[in-house]
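REVIEWER CHECKLIST
Item 1: Sequence provided? yes
Item 2: Single chain? yes
Item 3: Sequence as submitted:
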Amino acid sequence: MSSSQAQDGGRLGLAERQAAERNTERGQPTDIWAVVVQPGTDGGALAASLGFEYAGQIEILPNTYLFRLAGSAAASAARSRAFSALSAAPQVLFFEQQYLIARAKRGTPDPSEPLVFTDPYYADQWHLDNQGQNGAVPGNDVLVQPAWNLGFNGSGVQIAVVDDGLEYVHPDIAPNYNPIGSYDFNQGNPDPAPNTPFDAHGTAVAGVAAARDESTCGVGAAFRASLSGIQLLSDFTTDALEAQALSYALNVNHISSNSWGPIDSGSVFGGVGPLALAAIQQGALTGRNGRGTVYVWAGGNGLQNFDYANADAFVSSRYTIGVAATDYTGRQSWYSEPGAALLVNAPSSGDSTTDLTGSQLDITTTDRLGTFGYNGYPANLE
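Item 4: Structure as written out by the authors:
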């Protein structure tokens, strides 16, 4: 052991000291020494008796004080004197000279260097980064850029999209798809692929949440999250089926995304069976390995029918997060219901009339491959 190593600290085993040195990027030594003493020892009196200046206590650590010895940062003689004095004092259990340490700031990076995506449709995704494209009002977006800049991109989180299926072979979806946590409750098998050409909603919802950054289409808000598909809406459902779908693989599926509910006619109150509500409650209390599954629910599309989000028992449950929608100008979307049960708002489809180009400005997200989905249906379908 070199002389400098021997005089950095005392009463600490060599292996422990070397491990500490490997895990600490040390710079210049300082005049401050951290000292742990026997319980009941007066730190100030001990510092004075050993020729140090008392520099205070680390309050959260019992019996741990800071001593200062002028000149010990640079002068080897003063450093040796400090080491010898502390080593000889029976009241001292441990001591360590303090070094300057460089730390990296893990806050927001330079805002002049935002994330750069090569996905060709990212420029159209005003809901993620609204810079006024296509007549939108700049700044009316989901404000996800600060989260991205802090490194939050969905990694380590799995989102279950409970809907009408998930086209998991789509290049936007495939890299993030996880078959564990997926199931088709309409046909009773583990394959959540859409059952009919008209089943496109779930794939679009999944793209909004977690389309992968893979230079093909666009990106999702949590572009590195895992995705699972839970098929429920390709056919009629039941209270029991809904309960099963909403409680499926809850220790794998961390977030349950639900953009569906009772018919938004303005005449339905509640509209949810006791089994489904009980499943949500249990999931929120016990899912995610005891931390609680997060249930996110679209607030309802019945504004033109004078429907009210509070009337939807899914949205008004204390165990769900109700979501409202605004358009590219920041105004209430033409379909989005009001209600006290709504907890958050997110940008979505265009306003109640048209955009500046004469057509409704919707969000850009993943669609079914080929002629299926929102971009067109097979011509021979009636």
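Item 5: Key structural point noted by reviewer: The mean pLDDT is 81.
Item 6: Recommendation: ____
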